[in-house]
Amino acid sequence: MLESITYYYEYFIFYYASSMIFSYLFLGTISIINLIKYKSYNSDKDDDVLMKSPLVPGISVIAPAYNEEKTIIENVKSLLTLEYPLFEVIIVNDGSKDKTLDKLIDEFELIEVDFLYLEKIKTKPFKRIFKSTNPQYSILTVVDKENGGTKADASNAGINASVFPYFLCTDVDCVLSRQTLLKMIKPFLNTEGKVIAVGSTLRMLNGCEVKNGVITRVKPPKRLIPCFQELEYIRGYLLSKMGWSFINSVPNVSGGLGLFDKEVVIKSGGYSGDSHAEDMDMTTKMACYMMDNNLKYRVVYIPVSCCWTEGPTTVKVLGRQRTRWGAGLAQIFKVHRKVLFNRKYKKLGLITFPYIFIFEFLAPIIEFVGVLFFIYLAIMNKINWSMAYIIMLYSYTFAIFITTLVIIQDHIVFHHYKRTREVFRLVLMGFLEPLLYHPLIVFFAIKGYFNFYKGKELKWGTMTRTGVN
Amino acid sequence: MDFINWLYSLKLTIGSFPFIIQVSIVFICLSLFMSVFLVIYLTIIRNTNKIKEKLQDNIAPKVSQLFMEIIHNNYLEKEQEVKEKFEEIIDSDHKKVRKNKKYKHDLAIESLIKIRQNYKEESDRYSLIIRALNIEKYIGTKFSKLTYGAKKKAILELAELGLSSSDSRVLSYTYSSNNEIQTEARLSYLSLSRNDPYRFFDEIKGEMSSWSQIKLMNLLIEQSNTEGLPNFGKWIGYSKNDSLVIFLLKAATYFDQKKAIGTIREKIRSDNHILRSEVITALGKLKDFEIEDHLKNTYQNESDLCQVSIIKAIGYLGSGKSLEFLKQSFYEATSLDIKKVIATVIFDYDTDGKMLFFEMKSKIENKVDFSQKPLEINSYKENLYFNLQLFKHIENDLILYK
């Protein structure tokens, strides 16, 4: 009996890993096509066209903040310097317990104003709104509200206070490229069919040089964990999301940076206040709303790196972040279980959701069980080591190939790294990642699932910051 | 011989493995080969990029300087001299640059476009450089490339360099099946052609993308500075393409084409409420006072979108005759979004409007004490609270976007 379980399990693992490899190859191929297409039809000259135009739509930049006193001033200043003819910046103070709000009031000369705040999306009670008496900051609005426990609730308050038809949702600790709005609005203007959301590539801020809220030099992070994350982000955005975007099946627009059609967001109910994967939850809700109403839509990803965010530098902080993400993913499949394998939701229900469920949600569980099984076989001395090495190399070499491929893709888009050794450092990280970083990610994901099913309360994703250069 | 034997024995060994191990070995080899290949490719593209950067940093300023001298100071007269001077600058740097024609031509094109954009005045000296460096022919070679991206870039370059002689080449792409190429070609034709450049207004089919509208509007703005624009009323009148008409309405408004009012007015009975709303806005902005009474009469029967446009149009007209209508509309409106628009228009109307605004505000203030925000939903008090909040919102100068 045990023999036959072992036999079938081994085969299952092989076919599971192989199908994952083939899916990566497929995504890799279509992402390259999409990337070349993007490069062919877009250039920096388009930014000038938009800057000169009297017809551009307005954009509200919404950045929720919770206990961000260390970085809030620099980051808000960075948001205020974005290049776009018509935009406003809305900072939502989600009941911070530190001096986030006081610092904002002092620095930007804010006073409370009578603002017509219409609660189009339900949130925790809003308290007041501040505007600056300094004309230099006239586009800044600060919303102060009771703590809602999640970024989602704060983002909803920002949407309620916004005036423009599109809004960019970002984290206040992110540093955005000045051309972010110019790059991200273009798919809304130039894509056939209705675009409801646009995402862009996020990168690690650790290691970069920043001056007055603007990135002056991009470098890969020096420490191991953020460097692994840099690789993970490039892979996730340039390979995975660009691929999904090509077949109009993007599963989520990242919470760190996403531009949305406000009307569709409001009609689909806004961010779920209790969601901890608010980005995927929002994208799914919007897609479902469109399909429920028989409306065609597109969710687009652009390969340009527009946003840099500080990544965890220690295993402890990484663990906190990934456990939350794991719990968020589990929550998604509970909340949106009706979408999974549902023909009504077309590609989302039959391709994207099943893919994420099988290859992202179940993968850590299958891997974890595999490791336990491997240990059992080792103890029982039932491992043919020479064959085992080949099987391990099978996945390992493929991981290295994919890493090298995405680094090339990144170079096709833009040469961020000045020195060749910086690029080869990333290539080298590709060799270490499967051995050092990946096991941690698997462990934290399982911990996240466990926490979710135990009903452990989840809080705002606070992250210990070390600051940047 | 030993090596061949070794290979043969390896083949036999692998052949004796189970199927999945054989598949794995093939994939390991492929992955390793591809990784090495990609690393080599990475090194090549980094080197190529370094050369381009050098070109940009060292040679581009010198090339720009040379072109500026030729264009503005009448430096050099003959094509051969221009070519020699240009080559001299290029030869002063990197070997690989010297060998690669593509780099230097692209550099010349880029420099010329920048100069042309920065110094708007026309000069026949541009053509001296273009002829000397065979630029038109070089751009022509890009059309033979397979990628649409290259063709699009070539079309754009022809337009940006103002090479009117190539308009027939651009014309052939104006019916391309590729939307990006088609749009770019039509816009370029519009800027290049001396012979009926606006003919595409007759032929635009389907929805005009916002991007096309933005580019077209920018082009019209540029042309309005150099040469006259046609009366857009002509196409507004007979075009069956609503998205084109909406764009032309925006353009007619932007360029204040009062002569188009008559034709625009005819469109006010269109079944498309988005078009109708744009017509109303245009008539308001163009100060068509005759339409004001008609707008007020139809207000109640219009869609929300058109109602907003009517209110805004009355605001743009600012005739001083519609305050009572605005006041009545405010009290009858059920949506706070429309109320906000009406109150804003009353506030900005004229002195009487401001007086009415403060009168309406103080009426609410006298009715109820608002020291506490009311909690009852949809209550009379809540309505008043939001109305008062709305008035305070509008009168506050610190709120830039109402």
What does this structure look like?
The complex is a heterodimer of chains A (469) and B (402). Chain A has helices spanning 2-41, 45-52, 72-80, 100-108, 151-161, 180-190, 224-246, 262-267, 278-292, 315-335, 346-379, 385-413, 420-436, 438-453; strands at 59-65, 87-94, 110-113, 126-132, 140-145, 166-170, 175-176, 195-204, 209-211, 214-217, 257-261, 298-309. Chain A is an alpha/beta fold and 469 residues long. In chain A, the strands form 2 sheets. A 10-stranded mixed beta sheet of chain A has the order 3-4-5-2-1-6-11-8-12-7, sandwiched between helices. In chain A, strand 1 (59-65), helix 3 (72-80) and strand 2 (87-94) form a beta-alpha-beta unit. The longest helix of chain A has 40 residues, at 2-41. With 402 residues, chain B is an all-alpha fold. Chain B has a domain at 23-133. In chain B, 71% of the residues lie in helices and 0% in strands. The mean pLDDT of chain B is 87. At the A-B interface, helix 1, helix 2, helix 6, helix 12 and helix 13 of A face helix 2, helix 8, helix 11 and helix 21 of B. Chain B: The chain crosses the membrane at residues 20-44. Chain B: Keywords: Membrane, Transmembrane, Transmembrane helix. Chain B: It comes from Wenyingzhuangia gilva. Chain B: This is HEAT repeat domain-containing protein.
